[in-house]
From TrEMBL:
Protein's GO biological process: proteolysis
Protein's UniProt keywords contain Zinc-finger: no
Family per similarity comment: Belongs to the peptidase M14 family.
Protein name, UniProt field: Peptidase M14 domain-containing protein
Molecular-function GO terms, alphabetical: metallocarboxypeptidase activity; zinc ion binding
InterPro entries on file: At5g42320_M14_CPD, Peptidase_M14
Residue ranges of every copy of the Peptidase M14 domain listed in the record: 1-258
Cellular component terms per the entry's GO annotation: extracellular space
Amino acid sequence: MTNPSSGSFLLFIVFQSFGQHGRELITSELALRILSILSEEQFLPKMDRASLNGTLENVVIKVVPMENLNGRKLVEAGNLCERRNGRGVDLNRNWSVDWGKKEKDYDPYEENPGIAPFSEPETQIMRKIAISFDPHIWVNVHSGMEALFMPYDHKNRTPDGLPSQRMRLLLEELNNVHCHKRCMIGSGGGSVGYLAHGTATDYMHDVVRVPMSFTFEIYGDNTATLKDCFKMFNPVDHTTFKRVLNDWSAAFFTIFKLGPHQIDVHSKAAVSSMDKWVSIDEYFDGYLMGRRNRYGKKMEVLEVGMQEIRTYFRLFLLSSVLLLFMFCSRISKTGRQIVSAIPI
């Protein structure tokens, strides 16, 4: 995408999180498939490589493949219904927007919000990444049903105005092309049948001001019993597993392609997100990579790396001099004569 006023290329920034709930194993599998395609280890059926490279030319993507590592370990150890982290907290209830409110059907095993907003290290890390990365699109990937949700989770409605309309248009395109019109579309709170408080997507929308904030539910088996969590949240046969990964990988690449066109940088509604656009030159001149040393001078990552190399080299020289000094001192104390082994 180009900025019409300057003609320079602009970067479109996407932030994706997978594996927020331990039992939703399929979400991290999708993350790995997307990363494999981005690295050109695999390709989607009917995917044109030239078109793919063109789509990705001005897109910056950050992927968190498994947000809830300790919860995943509990599931792999046999607790197949565990969704919380290792401390028993639901990471998708630990964010600050409307945190701690409990509905009548509140289940602490399912929705424990923690002792305070951002009490968990996982949400602290995700918040820090989100604020520094400042994306145009946020996607929080879950399983349990097939749905494409936009804010709000804690209200029975969607946001007002043009940005909300643009989010819905993009979701309708994904539903038609990749979800085969099976996916539910709307606000999380208005579509699921219950309100969720302290969620990541509501925080991204209200606090980080991400223009497009989504929650995707990529798979669910409504024939599974409540005790059969693995089947409820994850495909159990190879054909379904492959279909889910192919359909939703393609959906994400559609986002990479269409997303920049859904955010109008000249519209009044998008003025607040104008500062999210950055030229490629600015990006490589220090955007996301800029760091400051102890004197407050801005340095590139490359410069920091060269400084570290110089430091290591100086330490090597110093240690060499010290070893030589110790060796010479020892020889002088013993008074031994060194005889050359090579005939002169």
